[in-house]
């Protein structure tokens, strides 16, 4: 069967496509312009005509995806801006919400479609609470929407992104719930936190990395370049998941009947960047022999931190099945550093 993956040239989408192709699916990817497909065509050349690309110039336009969805059995919508330096929050919110609404509206008319996967985020789940309790799929990040509504351009940068993800996911459920009685397909939403791991999409230099990979690089490999004082790195953390597990979760979310209609938080656990620095220094032999100045930070300091965003993420493994075994920090660190080393970073 054939799956449409939007934003094909992104960090997450490239891995989703690779995993789908390896599992025998055909894939049609959307990109904004011809040039963004050159690298993808190269890395997926072995799959011949099982991989194709289609250009969707402006995802926010009504009907933008009408052509792209023709004949597909499933959709994974990942195209959405993830950056934390927007001035006007609408730079993030408009493409996130309108892109999601636009592709869902096209999907309403699709007859062959069986499943729609929306890549949301824990950004749409969490909020800063004085006394955090484990977040679950029933939580929504209303705080970010409120901040953006009240403060506009002066809202917290992270909240601007969180609001874009929350509003987009809410719009998706609203449209789906209003129409589901007459649909041939169901909606599955995946909510991962920070995603780390080796990269396969096109990136020319560390400075051009996607936000989560760039953050990991600037914290674990070259904190000197990221401008973060080493003694503070231990304190910067969140929850995380390996990119390959996110990709596999997409495939499982397509395959598992009972995942239909569900919102699923997928994550390995908490991290502080110090944990990854410790994991990197413990690797033997070093996966980055050319790197003689591997930072040490403040060894083990990350272990005593209480997570600011605790989760109960037990629902997803139950619905997605035993195939979903999350990578550990050690595995992700080893493979990511080996990838960076190969690139001479
Ligand atoms: P990337 O920046 O690598 O990929 C973003 C993708 O979305 C690119 O294909 C990009 O295309 C496309 N895109 C961005 N803005 C627009 C726009 N205005 N119109 C059309 N397409 C657009 O980031 P990720 O792969 O990390 O992000 C992909 C998805 O994963 C996002 O929905 C993000 O919210 C979600 N996510 C990511 C996490 C992470 O830690 N990385 C965590 C949780 C969720 P182009 O190159 O043309 O700009």
TrEMBL record:
<protein>
    <submittedName>
        <fullName>D-lactaldehyde dehydrogenase</fullName>
    </submittedName>
</protein>
<dbReference type="InterPro" id="IPR002052">
    <property type="entry name" value="DNA_methylase_N6_adenine_CS"/>
</dbReference>
<keyword id="KW-0560">Oxidoreductase</keyword>
<comment type="similarity">
    <text>Belongs to the NAD(P)-dependent epimerase/dehydratase family. Dihydroflavonol-4-reductase subfamily.</text>
</comment>
<dbReference type="GO" id="GO:0032259">
    <property type="term" value="P:methylation"/>
</dbReference>
<dbReference type="Pfam" id="PF01370">
    <property type="entry name" value="Epimerase"/>
</dbReference>
<dbReference type="InterPro" id="IPR036291">
    <property type="entry name" value="NAD(P)-bd_dom_sf"/>
</dbReference>
<dbReference type="GO" id="GO:0008168">
    <property type="term" value="F:methyltransferase activity"/>
</dbReference>
<dbReference type="InterPro" id="IPR050425">
    <property type="entry name" value="NAD(P)_dehydrat-like"/>
</dbReference>
<feature type="domain" description="NAD-dependent epimerase/dehydratase">
    <location>
        <begin position="3"/>
        <end position="261"/>
    </location>
</feature>
<dbReference type="InterPro" id="IPR001509">
    <property type="entry name" value="Epimerase_deHydtase"/>
</dbReference>
<dbReference type="GO" id="GO:0016616">
    <property type="term" value="F:oxidoreductase activity, acting on the CH-OH group of donors, NAD or NADP as acceptor"/>
</dbReference>
<dbReference type="GO" id="GO:0003676">
    <property type="term" value="F:nucleic acid binding"/>
</dbReference>
